[in-house]
Amino acid sequence: MNIIGNIIKGAIEITEKLTPSSNPVKNQKEVLHHLLQTAKDTAFGKFYNFNDILESEDMRTRFAETIPYFDYNKINETWWSKLHEGQTNITWPDNPDYYALSSGTTGKSSKRIPVTQAMIDSIKSTGIAQILALSNFDLPGSFFEKVILMLGSSTDLIKKERHLEGEISGISASNIPSWFRGYYKPGDDIAQIKDWDTRIRQIAEHATDWDIGAISGIPSWIELILSEVISHNKVTNIHEIWPNLEVYTSGGVAFGPYEKGFNALMGRPITVIDTYLASEGFMAFQTRPETNAMQLATNQGIYFEFVPFLPEYINEDGSLKPNAPALTLDDVELNNEYVLIISTVAGAWRYIIGDTIEFKDIEKAEIIITGRTKFFLNTVGSQLSVNKLDDAIKHLEESFNIEILEYTISAKRYNGEFYHSWYLGTVDNIETDALAQSIDDYLKANKNYDVARTKALKGVKVKTIPSSIFYEWNDSNKKKGGQVKMERVMAEDKFVEWELFVENNYQPS
């Protein structure tokens, strides 16, 4: 009998039941007040007169009217750069303890995003809330005795003067509470290895020593790691190594495009739980099995606003136009896409995180991530979000019974005319003209795409390559493992580099 596991499971269920119901709208009003009150004496708070906002009759409206939108470049050049010059109390009291390094999916140079102790506490609190929500899933008592394999970036952080730097997954793992360390793998020694391939080999070699109940990480890299563990140990599926594996917490990108490949590595179905942890904070997590939507962490130091994701509010480079309206939780509607704006206990203010979301339950503040503002394919009026592109990939997998692990796309000119040029990561041998026709027909169900196909968009072209080429591309851009995600939509100039890379690194047989 799993006595200890059942005791832990029972304690979690009791704690969850005793936790009072949360009101997301009320939470958000309180969070905004806390942010403004705490930061009112910073340089940023004085410049934008937070005292005046706090005293206004409609704090949320005054806040939106007073403070402009900031992307990373704008807030870094104007405010965060002062921190690197030795100044203090800039956008949050004192100085940040960490900086999260993030090149994301669109650039080679790393962003340096402040991570304060208040943000570390926020991430911990949201993580605990996620653990409590496990009581809503039908998991055996034995699960709560097993360990969790967390696959992120190295926890060997870079020391810089008065702070440490690393990717957010490495920062989070280095701040795991002492009571949780007994449940955490691969453990400190392996987690500190900087070289991704070396770390994966170490995990594969130690895999049989661990009784893993859950794994956590970005789908593309999880697949690679599980494949390596399976190959190294000469088994056919991961459950032959970890028979008690019950849960996978996904994050970073939509799980849908990876589902088929992921399931092929399993010996039986497991519970997949979506999470939304970014360099700027732990935004949301799935709280119940009836939906794959995630509940926004509305009471953990992050204030959310939502800009309608419409062409009239979005510039060509994915940035927001100054007049774009920001909505609160009171105003959003179901099935509309929004650009997510955040203000946080790390001193980010009206910050454009770059993700687009859609509400699936407003009362519960449950969302799904639909894509990236910079990966909105609208060069010729097609208005395709990553969510629609992911759906097209899933359609191909189902229609042709194939597995597509990665993809990227660009609107490319051939002899002066635009085509959507797709690269699909698959080992399956399918006629590319048939794939192109199927994608084209499927996407014509979207009105804007269908109209674009009668005008400037002349057609679709498809090339298939091994998925390893995508990983080698990321490696060549120093973006391998951890929080790294493949760019789904490329600008024309970047696509030239990509195609040259493919040509030099892949020779079709």
From TrEMBL:
Coiled coil: none annotated. One of its GO terms (cellular component) is cytoplasm. Signal peptide: none annotated. Residues 298-362 form the GH3 middle domain. Residues 389-492 form the GH3 C-terminal domain. GO terms for molecular function: acid-amino acid ligase activity. This is GH3 auxin-responsive promoter.
